[in-house]
Amino acid sequence: MAVLISAFPKFVHNKMKDLIDTVYNLIDQTLIPLAFSLCLLYFFWGVAQYIRVGAGSETAAEEGRRRMAYGVIALFVVFSIWGIINFISSEFSLPNPGGNSIRIK
């Protein structure tokens, strides 16, 4: 019984570390690149709308400009979130399980 009680904290610590590594990998390797891609796609959708549809209509051109502006703002927000996550990771000396993120030094 004493062996089980002394092994339990180590088991919980390992499971918690695995959970944190999994969540970090999900955010850093999947969600952030997906968000970058969606923001960039939205920006280029605005560019296409501005060039193609906006040539004949001022309201369509304004809609395209608005989409481009929101796309740039969204890219800035996603880039900032990515930077904050990497900064916190490096400040707290968290291991980088994915291995291919840019580190802030």
Textual characterization of the structure:
- This protein is mainly α and 105 residues long.
- The chain has one domain.
- It is 82% helix and 0% strand.
- The protein is built from two helices and no strands.
- The longest helix is centred in the N-terminal third of the chain and has 52 residues, at 2-53.
- The radius of gyration is 22 Å and the shape is rod-shaped.
- 5% of the residues are buried.
- The mean pLDDT is 80.
Short descriptors:
105 residues, mainly alpha, 82% helix
How would you sum up this structure in a few lines?
By secondary structure, the chain is mostly helical. Helix 1 (2-53) runs antiparallel to helix 2. It has one domain (16-91).
Which strand-content bin applies to the residues?
under 5%
Percent range of helical residues: over 70%
Domain module count: 1
Question: Major sheet, described briefly?
Answer: none
Distance between the termini: 46 Å
List SSEs in N-to-C order: HH
Quaternary: single chain
How many β-strand stretches?
0
Q: Rg to the nearest angstrom?
A: 22 Å
- Average pLDDT, rounded to a whole number, is 80
User: What is the count of helical runs?
Assistant: 2
Helix vs. strand class? mainly alpha
The best one-word shape is: rod-shaped
The residue ranges in which pLDDT falls below 50 over 5 or more consecutive positions are none
